[in-house]
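Hey, I was hoping to borrow your eyes for a little while. No rush at all, and the record is pasted right below:
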Amino acid sequence: MTAHKTIKAALLGLAALSLAGTAQADQLADVKAAGKIVTATDMHYAPFDMLKDGVYEGMTKDLFDQVAKEIGAEPVYQDIPWTAELPGLEVKKFDIVIAPVTITPERLERYTFTLPIADATVSLVKAASNNDLTKPEDIKGKTVGVQQGTAQFKQLEAYGEKLGGVTVKEYGTTDEAYADLAAGRLDAVAGSLPNLTYLVKNRPETFALFTPAQFGEQKYFAWVLRKEADSESFAKAINDAMLKMTDDGRIQAIQEKWLGRYTELPREVPMK
């Protein structure tokens, strides 16, 4: 073999190896080969994620159990503080964040979102005994709690500025904010409508929704994957499973179980 042919063969071999490496970069294939999907969520976000007597349960778990079954892999659930979830996803500590994450334009630039799993429009809850606050505008000059690092926090800040001033107090978990509201240390708590509806449904003697409860623009919760080419097949498999579950009624049944009602969700990922 001449030197020219040897060099050509070597280059072709390197190209083949490169193409093989590219073909192997497929998260869905990796998940199926491992037989498991490693997830991250905050198990203190009822009704989506909860620990009851040390056992994980909630709407997220019911949904993802079914999605994982459709994909053919076992879900591994991890309780991770919300502020550590997206950074952990980026450095590949887990395959997916299944904590409900609000879809925003900024996050769409950085992450791959699945189809929505629930309405996430920001809303307000107060103490049941508080008759001074009724509509959202009444929080002007008041102290309102919200979970740190959330889209609801950003929307509350913007709304407070529009009203002319609201003192925003951040919490690591919504449970901490609810506890301070019940103790009279807050005037209200901002969160997504499903979370607050569930709270009031289970503790009507302590909490009540504003009327109307919602403010701001329509938002949705979804799950999050890395924004990489190898995640595309995994995202499609999840979305295909969710569409199948929508059409056969499983998503409606899960929503009604945890939220008490069914909300039809977009069949495509909202781009805002």
Notes: The first strand starts at residue 36 and ends at 40.
